[in-house]
Write a structure and sequence with these properties.
By secondary structure, the protein is of the alpha+beta class. The chain has one domain (about 25-130). It is built from six helices and four strands, in the order E-E-H-H-H-E-E-H-H-H. The protein has helices at about 30-45, 50-55, 60-70, 105-110, 115-120, 120-130; strands spanning about 20, 25, 75-85, 90-100. A two-stranded antiparallel sheet has the order 1-2. It has a two-stranded antiparallel sheet with strand order 3-4. Strand 1 and strand 2 (about 25) form a beta hairpin. Helix 1 (about 30-45) crosses helix 3.
């Protein structure tokens, strides 16, 4: 008895760089996510960010991007909290991050045109809206 395999032409091809979230399909590379994250952390220096707040920017794995920035010399303050997702469901143990130190070699990229070049108009509007999200 041989099993029939699924027809590969029946399902659409998807790019490995496309992230599908409940907010739509976004093409966000790791570099773009890091630029968006540093801009969001800079904007929200007093309140910090958690994974639900940056999800609207297309950052789907916040801990991975924090790990990347830590490897490059950035320092963070972290605190676990109970956070509510976009559906109103509370989640325990969600980590909130504050950027406390940026090394000199990354300072220009965070403040300069690299962030502006990476952030599209649509995402820059979302980045502006992230200020309004309550922690």
């Amino acid at each position: 008895m041989s099993k029939k395999k699924a027809d590969p032409k029946a399902s659409p091809n998807k790019s490995p760089h496309t992230n599908s979230t409940r907010f739509g399909t976004k093409r966000t590379s790791a570099k773009a996510q890091i630029c968006l994250l540093t801009a969001a952390l800079k904007q929200r220096s007093g309140t910090g960010v958690n994974r639900f707040e940056v999800e609207i920017l297309g950052i789907t794995h916040l801990a991975g991007r924090i790990c990347d920035l830590t490897k490059w010399g950035c320092k963070f303050t972290r605190r676990n909290e109970v956070a509510v997702d976009s559906y109103g469901v509370p989640h325990k143990g969600i980590r909130r991050y504050w950027l406390t130190f940026v090394p000199q070699h990354l300072h220009q990229a965070i403040q300069g045109s690299d962030v502006k070049a990476t952030v599209s108009r649509k995402r820059s509007r979302r980045l502006a809206q992230i200020k309004e999200v309550t922690p």
